[in-house]
Amino acid sequence: MARDAVLLSPVTRGYQTSCHDLPIGNLEHPALSKNTSSVHTSSAAEVPATDISPTWYATFFTYLPNEFWRRVATPEWTVAEVDFVESRLGLRAGARILDVPCGSGRHSLALAARGYRVTGVDLSAEALEHARRTAASAPAAASAAAGDAVTFVHGDMRELAGLGVFDAAVCLGNSFGYLDTAGTRAFARALAAVVRPGGGLVIDVGAAAESILPDFTGQVRRMTTGDIVVEMSGRYDVADSRQISQYRFVQGAQELRTTAVHHVRTSGHIGELLDEAGFTDLRRYGGLDGAAYTVGAPRLLVTARRR
């Protein structure tokens, strides 16, 4: 359940890619434009909505989608997102932070390097293996800072019991839209069960209705980073309020065709789910600069506190 999917994870204005980060993030994000290019291309045959597994995320996050996103997500982007978490939650030194799903660990490792004790949880074995390799191969200075401060756990984002109690939790990269309403409700409750009273929460939503629907077109895109090429096309399922994104990844002779889904909810509905789970003091932002969330903003960042 890696969060970096180029939708692979998130959404773009008028088009949603899917990754936590792919189901990747917003294609208009400056960090993406530095690493990718896009052109119109031919559309692939649509996968019938009824043929898409509700647990698509269990098999989506393999090497090619994960590696594409790892190349796209720049260190500068990660720093900006971690800065946002720190500034909005006012974290104390050595705070325990849950990163779920953590994908390839870019936020977990960045937080640990700043002295926080981090647990990253993800369903993608490939992503976790990469995260552990990165932690083990980090420069001596970074390893000294992180040390045993980061732990990676293979697991479902709805099953967090037994991990301990955390001062804060983060769900970055649009993963909040992977599950249907019942699954999202279970995830919100699982977060509330492990975050201490007064503890903080940051949710990153690329697929909020106010973000993707005003200019949605579903146009086909082609993106390239190094020797990996991805073609993406999207459509909106009005019956179930879902963004369905089809991908074709190519790296040399290797090719992968796969599909991702983001359940689209309004900002208000997301707030209701978090409030119902036990979070309060919800605040909505349209970007890492702290601007207010408005219709058409490319992403929704929600901060909250555990009651």
Provide the domain count.
Answer: 1
What value does the Rg take, in angstroms? Answer: 18 Å
Individual helix count: 10
Strand order, sheet with most strands: 6-5-4-7-8-14-13
Q: Which band does the percent of strand residues land in?
A: 25-35%
- The CATH H-level homologous superfamily: Vaccinia Virus protein VP39
Within the CATH hierarchy, at the fold level, what is the topology?
Rossmann fold
Total count of strands: 14
The CATH top-level class label? Alpha Beta
The poorly predicted ranges are 5-20, 23-43
Shape: globular
Summarize the biggest pleated sheet.
7 strands, mixed
Sketch the topology as an H/E string, one letter per element. EEHEHHHEHEHHEEHEHEEEEHEE
Summarize the amount of helix as a percent range: 25-40%
Q: What distance lies between the first and last C-alpha atoms, to the nearest angstrom?
A: 27 Å
Feature tags:
single chain, alpha/beta, seven-stranded mixed beta sheet, five-stranded antiparallel beta sheet, 10 helices, 29% strand, globular
